[in-house]
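Hey, I'm writing a tutorial for new members on how sequence and structure tokens pair up, and I'd like a real worked example in the thread rather than a made-up one. If someone can provide the structure for the chain below, I'll link this post from the tutorial.
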Amino acid sequence: MKKLIVLFGVVLVALTVAACQPKDDTLVIFQNKIEIDQVLRDYAEAWGEANGVDVEVKSCGGDTCAYGTQILAEFQADKQPDIFVIEGLGGYNIYEDKLYEFEDEEWMDDTDLAFTVDGKVYGFPVAVEGWGMGYNKDLLLEIGFTETEIMDLESVSQTEMRAAFQKVQDAYDADVAYDDYTVVSMAAGPGMTWVTGLHNFNGYLSAGLAYDDNSVITSLLAGQVNTARLNDLANWVEMLFEFANQSVLTTGGYDEQVGAFAEGKAAFIHQGNWTDGSYGDSDFEMGYLPHATMATGNNKIFIGAPSYYVINKDSTNIEAARLFLEDLAGTQAGHEYMVNEANMVPAFNSVTLTPATPLSAAVMEWNQAGKAYAWWQNDMPSGFGMETLGPIYTLYAAGTINKTEFIAQMTAAIEDLG
């Protein structure tokens, strides 16, 4: 009788444990781009049918769903996501003990933008974003630039970029038809500190360096200033501000900055390929040139992956998750989805499709040519770029401080991190 009772107890415990385990073999993908929700669902459904896998896509983002909060709730649910998204080092630090380490995946050899920590790969790049000096090719040709002169700016010094800016300004000054045109569409007011304190300042962190060279950001985090690089950055900022429309520079927002370029009234713009949605009615050819952040040797644009798919290392569907990502990167169907359905710039060199939108196409071209400087701005302390550095740019743009004071305040801000 005692043996029966013990046996019954063992069976009961086993059933209880089994009841607590996930019974669903569905591959769950939790992602943060609400704008691709439906197309990702469609792709995942087709992929699942072809591979005998049930796939469920959950999306959370935009103004109505806070991804950071919801992903924590997902991990407390009965069925944790098998694939989810992190946005770099911050996400890694939160979910480090949940992340599967990728090894020997074919897609790893097809990209330079995998998310790595200490040489180990944890993240599959969802897409690529980038920025350089956007340019209106038609306008430049109209005012006297040759094709060769424009191509020569693909490797540029500050002296050469200043000469190009001045040539544009001289053409404007010579013809009243250009009275409301600007050389550079640039905004540095209080609402645009993400353009200045993050994107522009990233030139200090990465311009002229190899993609994996994190020496400058490492020094910054220790409160150490590279005076020569900061002086070069200040000279570049001075040039941008000098050739900008002063009203847009000091009080304009995103719409004013992008609008001037979209209307064909700016030769250059300091913005990224996420502005492509504003150019549907623009009838001119556009592309990217490097920022002249350093005194010489600027020959790349700033390209990075803003988010990464990662695999939950405790998932029971790791092999299916790996296959899903492998096919996304390595098959024609995956490429079609990324480029033509989700309108993304893929991070994989084997993709031959070209985005239909102009600046995204330019980012892809620069990236696949290996001409990319890294994004390190997201590794700065939270708020440092937009709340500490950005306001210094705003003061400089308004003329409240001069270049020497700009350098001094930037130096002090960095040293305070030490």
